[in-house]
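ASSEMBLY PREDICTION REQUEST
Request ID: AP-0331
Submitted by: J.K., bench scientist
Number of chains: two
Total residues: 513
Priority: normal
Notes: Please return the full assembly, not individual chains.
Input sequences:
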Amino acid sequence: MKGFFENLFRQNVRSVINTGKKVGARAAAREIINQEWGYPLANHEVLFLTNVYQPKHMKRHPFHIVRGTVAPLAVTLPLGFFVLNYFGVISSKLGLLIALSSFIGGLVIWTISIIFDSLYDQQHTYEVKRGLVMGMMMFIISEVMFFFSFFWSYFYISLSPNIAIGCVWPPYGLTVYSYMGLPLLNTVLLLLSGAILTDGYTILTEQKAVHEKNEKVLAVEEAFKNLMNLYKTKNSINTLTFVDERRDKFFGKESRQEDKIAEQKLIAISAGVKELRDLDWDLYFFENPENIEPNYKEPTNLSVIEYALITIYLKKRNKVIKTRLYFTLLCAVVFLACQGYEYFFAPFSMNDGIYGSLFFLLTGFHGFHVLVGSILIGIITIRFIVGNFNLLNVGTNFQIYKNKSTGFACTLFYWHFVDIVWIFLYIVIYWWGSR
Amino acid sequence: MEGEQLQTAPYNPRFPQQNQTKHCWANYVDYYGCVKHYNGDNSKCQTFFNSMNSLCPAAWISEWDEQKAADLFPSDRV
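STATUS: Completed
Returned structure:
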């Protein structure tokens, strides 16, 4: 399908070049299918192609008209089933198993379809991303309220302790955790992981360079940034002179005599970035049809050295960001393991008094949120490895609405929310609430 | 009947609310703490005893006495 829309798009470009104006999407579709498939399309088929599948450049508005999908039902119906099962209206183990698999499968399908809407259909425009980020913020605010209610119950109970627990907090005779042991390690783990993830995000969105005091690397970075600016401002005609200057810095002046050998070596390196280039640069212009001009020139005439510079830079950058993602995941897993250890060896239990109830309610829900955050970080790690956040997709500024890193940004917000809740938990339960 | 003075627990600013549960509990703890302090001599602890008896339901006192006997009462002071 993607190839079809590219052709459709190119047909439009051709039309702009030849006649100076765009043909309508439907006319273009008709034309292409006539040419390529050899038979004309019926009206309703054209309507289906142009209305149901709506690439960005074929719409007259920036919003995403979502397609019909079974995912929301597959997620919410099992939720209803869980409730009925909990109250004993329905009790069937097979039904529960089916509901659970439908719930998880629906979530997976929903996530993947949103990612595909963004990557292949190019539906995530500025406005759509703003809506997504706003939705995430609303969700986080609702989560804050959720935790606020539990903190309220904690303070209600602990500020004026009942006579049954000896009018003291923590309850008389109960052994509770010291704030200096595992909880402190957990605090360090969560805060460190948040900082590291933020660092990865700043590198991803190019707010921060990949640091290394190496002239070659700095030269490559600078060259790359300049190249990006040149391509993004569409003044790519004189890149070759610019690359010559960079080449001197990068390989030394004596290498000029060995240009041919160097270029042959670099052709090999550039092969690695070719796939990336084919995907990304097409997508860039595919995504920004307003950049198309009558003298539109496909950006395929990069020099070999430019490819090499980009390859080296991208490899280093990917490695650095990947390290940060892995480290964050590791921190999350160790945190969960520590919490599991603490739960397993707890001197109180959930049903032996008010302290245990509140402790497990608060830390348990927080632990569940850490688990969800870890899953989100896992998703963005996979997306990063697969290449969803490639450089041209991501953009070069901290503009969450203008780049393709919205998923990363939302995960980051969520992770920081989990961090902050933990800080309150640590201060209130482990520190203030201990002896 | 004429000579008998009826007296309830005096006002205590630590417990200004209508709910006097904790006031009762504090008097129970104070009474037995006082007895413990004077090595079983309860003659100086009558204020606490009177307040306790006028504030606390009898069932609570007997329950707490049982807890105290079984060493389960949630306080160090009794």
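REVIEWER COMMENTS: The mean pLDDT of chain A is 74.
SIGN-OFF: pending second reviewer
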